[in-house]
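User: quick one
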Amino acid sequence: MANESRKFECESLKKLARAIFEKKGLAADKAADVAEVLLAADGLGIASHGIQRIGVYMTGMNCGRIKPTAEIGVVRETPVSAVLDANDGMGQPAAIKAMRMAVDKAKKTGLGIVTVRNSNHFGIGGYYSMMAAKEGLLGVSMTNSEAMVVPTFGCHPMLGTNPIAMTMPASPTWFHFDVSTSVVPAGKIELYKRQGKTLPDGWAVAPDGKVTNDPQVFLDIRKNKTDGGLLPLGGFGMEGGGHKGYAFSMVVELMTAVFSGGNTSNHVREKPNEDKCCHMFQAIDYGIFGDKKEIEAHFSRYMEEIRHSPKAAGQTRICCAGDIEAEVMKKFEASGIPIPDGTLNELIGIAKELGVDCQAILIEKK
Amino acid sequence: MANESRKFECESLKKLARAIFEKKGLAADKAADVAEVLLAADGLGIASHGIQRIGVYMTGMNCGRIKPTAEIGVVRETPVSAVLDANDGMGQPAAIKAMRMAVDKAKKTGLGIVTVRNSNHFGIGGYYSMMAAKEGLLGVSMTNSEAMVVPTFGCHPMLGTNPIAMTMPASPTWFHFDVSTSVVPAGKIELYKRQGKTLPDGWAVAPDGKVTNDPQVFLDIRKNKTDGGLLPLGGFGMEGGGHKGYAFSMVVELMTAVFSGGNTSNHVREKPNEDKCCHMFQAIDYGIFGDKKEIEAHFSRYMEEIRHSPKAAGQTRICCAGDIEAEVMKKFEASGIPIPDGTLNELIGIAKELGVDCQAILIEKK
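Assistant: Done. Structure below.
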């Protein structure tokens, strides 16, 4: 079979990732940050943002786009806010520092917002919103990214896929989502191509700005850097609310790039070997609104009402945001993280080149 | 013609609205609040939320759903936040008080969030986000409402149309949007019915939870209080991102109802002659992130880049959120507010019954 995979202990994969990034010059704490965020993605079943990304990050460091020894600067700070400069370092350490600051500020004042400029890919936004939730706070994260989304009635990519993630403590599972403000992320189109499927209307436009159903058209746009791209949530034009997705995407640009003094998505990756994307992290200590346990119970009760509300014909389940994620996490905690052979071989190759003993570190889960 | 309308001086319409609400027992300042918000809607061309609403508000006061003499209580307050109780009064005065508090807090600390519970319809959310922008702040407002939106894969309305409004100072026009998190608001379906049009896929579901294209099906659902309703932004299921619109709608429930200790939408209007919806208002003094003029210039420059970016085939214009609204406001400022004869006759009837001399107050724009 082409897609064989073996399962590994999550901690051993983290150790491998840490070792690789330390060999590339990252300080131990920063290498650990990157490893945590990557394996959190794998643990949520988001393999595209998991340990398989190491190859892309290696390329980024080798070409100078990612500066492994960059220091994170504090540009500006108030009791409720800060602006950080990642100085072209890895996105994860800057993002973790930023959310830690937002959490500390929220614990003192009730609210905290920290923005980051001149950064690189930060992995899954949901990791950072969960950081706040682990501290008993509402967490929000946003990031912009290389432009690949067209504005409503446009044909030139001017916006990133601009995901928004939010986590709110609740039981039995947290309210949690981590979604692009485009109708789908780019990876979904690649998946449709591999599966030989045509795209639904409203996902992507060809270079002339008209809707296309051919995933290859989008892949060519990305490869050749021509006009065309993904559509905002709501699809083409205004009939399905595409202007709303476009507005929400602009909110991400405002909160990340404009509020950090960094690059909007149309200027991210503009120059060779530069990324310079921007992030935003927000924490809210909802104790400012009332008793925290009561607030969590209220929201949990509402989610239960929704889960148990009448289903549409042919449907057997209504989920709340975070339900599926909680199940996947539990499953992979028990089974170990599946790593496809292709990814494993790439990791072994990278490790070998850096003098990291992959076999001694990885523990297969039986 | 059936749809004749005459144009009136905006100030004279405000005066009429104030006089009507004062006669119904509202304090002068609260009557003025309601008049301001209603005419702001008319000035933006959102007639559905303008002075024509007075009839609905009269019904609400006559049946006891709206208590005209209710006092607004402050339940809890911190330097960055407050929770208000509207005590079943009109939504507008509570909303204006809440946004004023959020603005004051943001001016002092950088950030302010104020929630409101036990309220009634507050008109257009965009009025309140603009209040903050007029003070040089980023403004956000949200409200929940009677449930008429189904969760993804559900058929029972569990969510309101839950609009989000945001205004950010920029030039030549402010970034401004005020949009439901459902794919369309209910009024859009009524409009399609009047125009004899069928609904696009992904707007509404029949009582069995399957997509319907017949606007009458939705109107019957509303009339008979059966299952069925509007779909979240992104449409049916997950293919077009309906789960994202559903998640954003849940954010509104969290920020409005859960963070005020009030009713989630499935419990709004649950009892006869009660509404008890909830709102949230947020102000951000973006001076905490850098020089305010530079931040405004940065965002304005990005919006100009988008407006001037290449258009899709057959399209002549790319707008930023707020561009159309700014044009409509300018047009109606010059022309006066058009009031259809049907609305005018209803207003004259209401005024007469309350002993208000409509003819002496209204000034027709020639």
